[in-house]
Design a protein that fits this description.
The structure is a single chain. Helices cover 0% and strands 42% of the residues. It has strands spanning 7-12, 28-36, 46-47, 58-60, 65-71, 80-87, 92-98.
């Protein structure tokens, strides 16, 4: 659980067939909030707010991973937020977290 108003870093790696991390621009196709528990009226596919000037995932060459700092400002404590990252091959990565 994360504290409401904090920053939640979303990090992941994409690898080729030889297990080499891929940092090529365009790997991340989209990133959206897809659901929120305890609120049946949530809007699906909301844009995700960042705590940094970045408005998309950025490549971290040192850690060899993609990262996006999710802003939880305005999110409700006691809620679970579910996200979907879509890659350029249309595969998806789903994840969620709750706020306390």
């Amino acid at each position: 659980m994360n504290k409401a108003g904090s920053t939640v870093p979303a990090k992941f790696r994409v690898a080729d067939a030889n297990c080499n991390s891929i940092g090529t621009p365009g790997v991340v196709k989209s990133f959206f909030l897809i659901a929120q528990t305890a609120d049946p009226n949530v809007t699906v596919n909301e844009v995700v707010d960042s705590t940094t000037p970045d408005t998309a995932f950025r490549w971290d060459p040192t850690a060899q991973q993609w990262i996006f700092n999710i802003s939880t400002k305005g999110m409700k404590a006691g809620q679970k937020y579910m996200y979907r990252i879509t890659l350029n091959d249309n595969s998806t990565i789903d994840f969620s977290f709750a706020l306390k």
